[in-house]
Design goal:
Elements: H1 3-31, H2 39-53, H3 63-86, H4 103-114, H5 130-160, H6 170-196, E1 206-209, E2 215-218, H7 223-232, H8 253-278, H9 281-307, H10 318-323, H11 337-350, H12 365-376, H13 387-407, E3 412-413, E4 416-417, H14 420-445, H15 448-452, H16 459-474, H17 489-519, H18 535-559, H19 561-568
Helix pairs in contact: 1-8, 1-11, 2-6, 3-4, 3-5, 3-17, 4-17, 5-6, 5-13, 5-17, 6-7, 7-8, 8-9, 8-11, 9-11, 9-12, 9-18, 11-12, 12-16, 12-19, 13-14, 13-18, 14-16, 14-17, 16-17
Length: 574
């Protein structure tokens, strides 16, 4: 742990705070239909898109209609992606003449990119053609991100509106999310990445001769354009198998900094949007403070854990001790080091991004436990674009409910009474997530032929690899712990189901909650109203999140990374 590392963390957070407020206010104006500085350019394009798609921008939807439109759009997108993957061998822009993707893998990938997960059970540069990468996968990076933002905005509208039967128009929210937010930000970031050396071309792969007179195939393609939306949309799926550890995706310390910043930028700004649209800026900052506390706790723990020498090498000999004096560098890029690796790993698992610049499987057991626990909290610490905010607001409802129980009165949240239906929907949202993870992990570890046959590690480390896979899928994160070959029929099919359920089964009760809140009357605050814009609220919200996460997942963590940590200090490896 170095002063330089801490300085980088402080600089990162300072830049994030400086950028999030203007972006958050801008997004509030976009989704409230107010005029923005981009209107002269984008409004004619927006109007044309509505006309071509037959959308009446003035017609709003109830929560059931909004949910139906979202599910129908996602299903059609999934089907289209599946078909293009299967038929890519007869489609254009395939200079490497790659074959069509197998059925189980095509299903898994279609489900993955439709749900903003971008889990990849394949090596992208030898599996997906340029056409598939650009027309389907990059398309989903924009649209699945826009869906997440749109759904989050509906919940914010539900909180802000009074006695309303509608929560917005799905098609308008999606189009505005892509046109006014994601696309302009990508047009800023992508050229900077190209200037730093990220590849952007349509060439066939290069055949090079190595110094040993061997042959090496150097993959390339339209990388920078996908890298920008991969980060800004918290998608995470890499153009290359090594993801952001690959020098063609992440060549310099500046690109590393910008990519981490892009992961958090929109999720952080949405807390400002929350405060602006609900008329309570203090509440938005209280939610941001809770996210920041959890982020900093995870970052410090990972940085500390990875800065320690490996216990089986430390002190064995002077030479091995010297090799480990900088910490655990296994699986990490030397050009980034421990500090930038810890920052990237924390950000990508706090958000539902999944991009990586190091192999999480090579982290120390405690470092690996933290990145796993980050996802287990429900991807709410900033979280994915939109999904992080609405996931956090579910916990806000639970925190307000608990506060109401403590003072013995009906809980209130920004002028809305929180009643039985609201709590039921919130609890349904919270319970779906661990049910998916724990049940499918249990089936896998009890099935030698399906779940254990593709493991590279046994014991608690092997359990962690399986647990991480289903946690990443259900949390729509997409990062992998490695050590597990997930390109099997069992994992492709089960993880595909997990990703779809983790996205859409959790969206439905959330949208029902939004619709119910929008219909409620406004209740004036009283002396018994618990303020949701105070430091006390931040402490309560943080406590609820940690307690729910610990009670749910501590038994599984104790059998995985915690047990591995204890056995490692006794000399056991797996």
């Amino acid at each position: 742990m170095t002063a330089n590392g801490w300085l980088q963390f402080v600089l990162f957070f300072a830049v994030l705070i400086a950028l999030m407020r203007p972006l958050g206010i801008y997004m509030a104006r976009v989704f409230q239909g107010e005029r923005t500085f981009l209107d002269p350019v984008l409004h004619p394009i927006e109007s044309l898109l509505y006309k071509l798609c037959g959308v009446n921008a003035e017609e709003e939807m109830g929560w059931r209609q909004y949910t139906g439109a979202m599910l129908l759009f996602s299903f059609v997108s999934l089907l289209l992606t599946y078909l293009i993957e299967r038929l890519q061998h007869i489609l254009p822009w395939n200079p490497q003449h790659l074959a069509g993707v197998s059925p189980a893998l095509a299903w898994n990938t279609a489900a993955s990119f439709t749900t903003n997960t971008n889990w990849q059970s394949y090596v992208p540069e030898v599996t997906m053609s340029y056409f598939t990468q650009m027309v389907t996968l990059a398309y989903h990076n924009f649209l699945s991100g826009a869906v997440g933002i749109a759904v989050a905005i509906t919940l914010v509208r539900g909180i802000a509106r009074r006695e309303s039967k509608t929560i917005g128009n799905f098609w308008v929210d999606c189009i505005r999310g892509v046109l006014y937010i994601l696309l302009p930000l990508c047009l800023i970031l992508a050229p900077i990445l190209i200037g730093q050396g990220v590849v952007q071309n349509m060439h066939a792969y290069t055949q090079a001769q190595t110094l040993e007179h061997g042959q090496q195939t150097i993959a390339q393609g339209p990388v920078a354009s996908q890298e920008a939306i991969k980060m800004l949309g918290t998608n995470g799926g890499g153009f290359f198998n090594a993801n952001s550890a690959h020098p063609f995706e992440n060549p310099t310390p500046l690109t590393n900094f910008l990519e981490v910043l892009a992961i958090f930028l929109i999720p952080a700004a949405l807390t400002v949007t929350l405060g602006k649209m609900t008329g309570s800026p203090g509440h938005g900052w209280a939610v941001f403070a809770c996210m920041s506390v959890l982020f900093c706790a995870a970052l410090v723990t990972i940085y500390w854990a990875e800065s320690q020498p490996h216990p089986l090498l430390h002190g064995v000999s002077q030479s091995s001790s010297a090799l480990q004096s900088g910490g655990n560098m296994e699986g990490k890029e030397v050009r980034f080091g421990i500090a930038d690796t810890a920052l990237f790993a924390t950000a990508t698992t706090d958000a539902s991004c999944g991009a990586v610049n190091a192999m999480h499987d090579s982290f120390t057991p405690l470092g690996g436990m933290v990145v796993l626990a980050n996802i287990m909290l429900g991807e709410i610490v900033f979280g994915g674009v939109g999904s992080g905010l609405y996931g956090m607001l579910i916990y806000v409802v639970l925190a307000v409910f608990i506060a109401g129980l403590m003072v013995g009165r009906t809980p209130e949240y920004l002028g809305k009474k929180i009643e039985a239906f609201d709590v039921k929907m919130a609890m349904l949202y919270v319970l779906i997530f661990p049910l998916l993870i724990l049940v499918l992990t249990a089936i896998s570890v009890l099935s030698p032929q399906m779940g254990l046959s593709s493991l590279n590690n046994a014991g608690p480390h092997g359990l962690t690899e399986i647990l991480y896979a289903f946690t990443s899928g259900a949390g729509n994160n997409g990062s992998a712990f490695a050590g597990l070959n997930a390109n099997t029929n069992w994992y492709n099919i089960s993880l595909g189901f997990t990703m779809l359920a983790g996205r859409f089964l959790m969206m439905i009760p959330m949208l029902a909650l939004a619709g119910n809140l929008a219909q409620k009357k406004s209740v004036p605050p009283s002396p018994g109203t618990f303020p949701v814009n105070s430091s006390l609220f931040t402490v309560l919200l943080t406590g609820v999140i940690v307690i729910v996460g610990a009670l749910t997942f501590f038994p599984a963590l104790s059998l995985g990374p915690i047990l591995e940590h204890l056995l490692l200090h006794q000399g056991s490896l797996f």
